[in-house]
Design a protein that fits this description.
By secondary structure, the chain is of the alpha/beta class. The protein has a single domain, classed as Formyl transferase, N-terminal domain (Rossmann fold, 3-Layer(aba) Sandwich), CATH 3.40.50. The chain contains six helices and seven strands, in the order βαβαβαβαβαββα. Helix 1 packs parallel to helix 6. It is globular. It binds 5-O-phosphono-beta-D-ribofuranosylamine (GRF). 5-O-phosphono-beta-D-ribofuranosylamine binds next to helix 1, strand 5 and helix 6.
Amino acid sequence: MRDPGRVAILISGRGSNMKALVEQAQGYEVVLVASNKPLAPGLEWARAAGLPTWALDGKGVDKQEFDRLLSAALHDHQVGTIALAGFMRILSPWFVDQWRGRIVNIHPSLLPKYQGLDTHVRALSAGDAVSGCSVHLVTEELDAGEVLGSAEVPIEPDDTPESLEQRVLAAEHQLYPKVLGEFVHK
Ligand code: GRF
């Protein structure tokens, strides 16, 4: 079996969770940063940090082909665990099956509440007193796999989606490295 401590991080954007995973890596090693957006700002940071990167523009590439090439790159780097960090592309059932039980994701809500997008707007509209973030296993169903860990963030009366997002993001940066470190040792 592959070493679960060899982690690939998949990003599409700024990559603040990726940074947190790299900077607070304990018990695992980040061996690849991969993206479906060749111009993702997070990729530049990864390169500057000396990490191997892989990128392929997801637009215009057949979905199966993208997932096949991504999977091949992960195998080339002997990846044992895949951490999604703002990866805005749904992985095909084929890919999920290839890597079953080895893909985790961070989501900005207390799952199973608010799967999908716009979690902060939805938490505020519902009048919730508490929000937070969750790390979960990735399955074929969006944001529905087993929750591996979560952190609560109280909602303040004057919170906007932006202010809440900021505080939840700070909690994500604490939670994700901790849960990933535990997960790879299971
Ligand atoms: C985070 O809010 C994460 O929970 C969600 O996408 C966002 C990614 O942000 N899945 P970043 O690229 O890690 O800064």
